[in-house]
Specification:
Helix content: 55-70%
Order of helices and strands: HHEEHHHHHH
Shape: globular
CATH architecture: Orthogonal Bundle
Number of domains: 1
Bound molecules: fe (ii) ion
Number of strands: 2
């Protein structure tokens, strides 16, 4: 992972990463062996990269990606079909309260991330980046790829971030 790109990413989400609500996702299991925080960080970074590659708003994609699963309850408390539709609404409500408001792209990125399972669709490439990143990252997590990524080593292991300098 390039240091410059990692700094650009942290410029977008640095203060959100430190927020207690975002840190609280570390205590919520999302996929086997992967916390909601790890999944959200993964989605955020991949959405940031996709949106940038498409010439779109990397900041909105990074922020919506980090907050897209900020539902902050035990997902096992709801049947899975209900959780599928309910959690984007809870995440959007919590994200709006945390940020004191959301841009239209951030809001749509959060609310539409379950498309096409849920009916609300992304209206911009930035929101589409979050939706696509969610699927890619969930697949990588289930296949056990997440812990082998440079992002995991940089952001989730103790010690200074292990980023390349060139
Ligand atoms: Fe989700
Ligand atoms: Fe997700």
């Amino acid at each position: 992972m390039k240091q410059e790109r990692w700094r650009d990413y942290l410029d977008c989400v640095g203060e959100l990463l430190a927020a207690p609500q975002v840190q609280a996702m570390k205590d919520i299991r999302h996929h086997p062996g992967v916390s909601c925080f790890e999944h959200s960080l993964f989605v955020s970074y991949v959405a940031f990269r996709l949106a940038r590659r498409w010439g779109k708003d990397g900041r909105a994609a990074a922020r919506a990606g980090l907050l897209h699963d900020l539902y902050l309850y035990d997902p096992r408390s709801l049947p899975s079909y209900k959780q599928c539709f309910a959690h984007p609404l809870a995440a959007e409500r919590n994200a709006r309260a945390l940020c004191g408001g959301l841009t239209r792209e951030e809001e749509n990125g959060i609310l539409a991330h379950m498309w096409p399972m849920a009916r609300r669709a992304p209206h911009s490439r930035t929101a589409a980046a979050v939706c696509l990143a969610d699927k890619l990252c969930a697949t990588a997590e289930v296949l056990g790829i997440w812990r082998r990524t440079a992002l995991y080593r940089a952001a989730c292991l103790p010690g200074p971030p292990s980023v390349e300098t060139r």
